[in-house]
Specification:
This protein is of the alpha+beta class and about 400 residues long. The chain has ten helices and 22 strands. Strands 1, 2, 9, 10, 11, 12, 21 and 22 form an eight-stranded mixed beta sheet that branches. It has an eight-stranded mixed beta sheet with strand order 6-7-5-15-16-17-14-19, sandwiched between helices. The relative contact order is 0.19.
Length: about 400
């Protein structure tokens, strides 16, 4: 067999927080392992990582025993410690989850039980106690989750990349992958560069299913992009911290909430509407090839038939500011239309199964010489350090078996 000149041991595709955390974890677990990160954008954290609300989630929402629950609880503590160690702006603020209707009370109580099962301290509040935390917020009951916080995830991603010691190649869009199980992988970028590695890690977020298929592995899911639209609160003094509604357990979305960020501004949102491109940050961004490929996946239509009522409400709030304000007023009656100013949107990379089910946990799969992260939306930023260690462990096992 001819000798292959490898450029690296592990080739990571994707320079978001999960890809950079993986590179960081490899350097900690196996010093001397050569890692190269390819990112198509001119810098890190340009999509899901840099466009979320900056919340360090507690893990209260997630099914006990799931990867989301275990990694979010562990990751919240580790993220806070990482930010403190490296001087990254952060704060442990706590948050309120507020029931505004009687039919939400059983779900709120269910969250209390889930929080306790996940090892999260939770305090139950009555109407008067809500005002002690948030004087302008109205509700029938609430819970206070003390371990929730906020941070600057873009700064975290930059620091992870620097501390990893990896070779970071920006502006390196992957257009072709040649995988040979007996040798390794060779990746061609849009600039014409060829990068060879002994193992590949796919952390491509919005494009992770396409990268998996490019590698030769069928992911058995498709990424459906959901745009999350935000407003900025013009009167940030109305909100002291983080305020969430009681989520619908049938969906992975948390509903329109209020988040005081690390910069002192208050974000309101997001809603969740299908995007017409994987990077469809507003209705004007349409990429017909991507939209048609999404529509060709049977799971999209099955998902639509199953959840059309929920989707109709989200679309209404997208096209009507008045409808969005009405949703916010359930929590914050004092808010008016002039109090909300459009802010940058984000896009959630949601994996959808062929049967229309929404993948509700982190999904990591392996192929020959490859590890694919196929579902890592929120709370992936919170959980990025544990996720990175798990992906690194699998990638290093690939190296050991070759």
């Amino acid at each position: 067999m001819p000798v292959v000149a490898y450029d690296c041991d592990v080739l990571v595709i994707g320079g978001g927080i999960v890809g950079l955390s993986t590179a960081y974890a490899i350097s900690r677990a196996a010093p001397g392992t050569r890692v190269t990160v390819l990112e198509k954008e001119p810098g890190p954290a340009r999509h899901q990582t840099g466009r979320n609300s900056g919340v360090i989630h507690s893990g209260i929402y997630y099914r006990p025993g799931s990867l989301k629950a275990r990694y979010a609880v562990r990751g919240a503590a580790e993220m806070t410690k990482f930010c403190a160690e490296y001087g990254i702006a952060h704060a442990v603020t706590g948050k309120l989850i507020v029931a505004t209707e009687r039919d939400e009370l059983p779900r709120l109580h269910g969250l209390v039980q889930r929080g306790r099962e996940n090892g999260i301290p939770v305090r139950e509040l009555g109407t008067a106690q809500i005002a002690e935390y948030e004087p302008e917020v109205r509700g029938l009951a609430a819970i206070h989750v003390g371990t929730t916080g906020i941070c600057d995830y873009t700064a975290v991603a930059h620091r992870l990349g620097e501390a990893s010691g990896a070779e970071l190649r920006y502006g390196a869009e992957v257009v072709r992958i040649d995988r040979r199980p007996e040798r390794g992988v060779a990746v061609l970028t849009a600039r014409g560069d060829v990068v060879r590695g002994r193992a590949l890690v796919n952390c491509a977020g919005l494009y992770c299913d396409e990268i998996a298929r490019m590698t030769g592995d069928e992911p058995e899911v498709r990424i459906v992009p959901f745009r999350g639209e935000y407003y900025e609160l013009a009167r940030p003094d109305l909100v002291r911290g983080l305020v969430y509604p009681v989520p619908d357990p049938a969906f992975p979305f948390l509903g329109v909430h209020l988040t005081r960020g690390i910069d002192g501004g208050v974000h309101v949102g997001p809603n969740a509407v299908p995007a017409l491109a994987r990077e469809g940050y507003d209705w004007g961004v349409v990429r017909p090839r991507e939209a048609l490929a999404t529509a060709a996946w049977p799971g999209v239509w099955r998902m639509g038939r199953r959840h059309w009522r929920y989707g109709a409400g989200e679309l209404r709030r997208s096209v009507s500011k008045g409808a969005f304000v009405q949703a916010v007023r359930r929590l914050l009656p004092a808010v008016g239309e002039t109090d909300l100013v459009r802010a940058d949107a984000g896009v959630r990379a949601q994996a959808v199964l062929r049967d229309g089910g929404l993948v509700d946990d982190f999904l990591i799969r392996e192929g020959a010489r490859a590890v694919h992260v196929l579902n890592a939306p929120s709370p992936a930023a919170t959980a990025s350090l544990p996720i990175g260690r798990e992906v690194a462990r699998r990638a290093l096992e690939v190296l050991e078996t070759r």
